[in-house]
Amino acid sequence: MPEPVVIEVGGWEHECCGLAVEIGDVVEYWVVSADGARRFAEVRHDAARTQSIRGRVVELYALGFGGRVAIERLPSGSALCGNDEDDDGRLEARWTGQPIEVEWDGETAFEVVVDPYGKRR
Length: 121
Prior knowledge:
Number of strands: 10
Largest sheet: 5 strands, mixed, barrel
Strand order of the largest sheet: 1-4-3-5-10
Number of helices: 2
Distance between the termini: 18 Å
Helix content: under 10%
Shape: globular
Strand content: over 45%
Order of helices and strands: EHEEEEEEHEEE
């Protein structure tokens, strides 16, 4: 059985058209290798995709100046930018549900940990 993999999500590509993600969701990301092993970066638009990873989300993290913070859900890109009338884009701490503020190191950055079903090239 494959080990969970980390998919780096964020920046302008997520803010443009990234979907909301919650723990337990089944997702599929087109990715490029970020370290040659178990870490990948999501790519969209015209970027060169090397493979897709499909699986169930088991952990979510926001990455900021304060380090890695476990979160309940990753809001959609439009919600994070304040452009979704049904979602305020607020980040909530995992387990407590308390709102959190993340001081970003440049662009937004998240880690989506996926238990993969399989990879396609």
